[in-house]
Design brief:
Layout (H helix, E strand, L loop, with lengths): L12 E6 L2 E6 L8 E5 L2 E2 L2 H6 L5 E5 L2 E4 L11 E2 L5 E6 L2 E6 L10 E2 L3 H8 L12 H17 L1
Parallel strand pairs: 7-10
Antiparallel strand pairs: 1-2, 3-9, 4-6, 5-6, 8-9
């Protein structure tokens, strides 16, 4: 039986500390153009969607939104990136995370969350992806945060 392009590849992935809190990292090489993982969760009613405070909502269609807050949804740990190595493909009302290019072991997975989410949640605090905050700049910010924690 031929494997579908949209069958998650069963790749070895790890949730680790990242710039934006926790992130999902490749533990092995992931080829270009394959399904890495599916974003899963409970489908919300229209009323639940309006009142939800979850930051893990994924609009699949105008009538279907998934709440991926549950920790069993490993895809929820994929952070935003302005220079992503992954992209989202929606097929048959399901959400798949696909590789845009070859991903190396140890590399953090990231996709663009879209303008609306970016403007609402990321822009006010500053984007921490590699494109927006180079490694040198991130080390300065990280050291400053560590000093603040020690004082508190």
């Amino acid at each position: 039986m031929r494997k579908s392009k949209f069958t998650p590849g069963g790749f070895d992935l790890a949730v680790k500390k990242a710039r934006a809190g926790r992130g999902l990292f490749a533990q092995e090489t992931i080829p270009k153009g394959v399904c890495i993982i599916e974003y899963v969760g409970r489908t919300l009613t229209a009323k639940e969607e309006e009142t939800s405070r979850s930051r893990y909502l994924f609009e699949v269609t105008k009538k279907k939104t998934i709440d991926g807050w549950n920790k069993r949804n490993t895809a929820r740990y994929i952070n935003h990136s302005c220079r992503p190595n992954c992209e989202i493909e929606i097929r048959k009302k399901r959400v798949f995370v696909m590789s845009k290019r070859k991903i190396q072991p140890g590399e953090e997975l990231g996709y663009n969350y879209g303008k609306s989410y970016f403007d609402s949640f990321l822009k006010p605090i500053g984007c921490r992806c590699l494109k927006c905050m180079p490694e040198k700049e991130w080390k300065k910010v990280s050291a400053k945060l560590k000093r603040k924690k020690k004082k508190a």
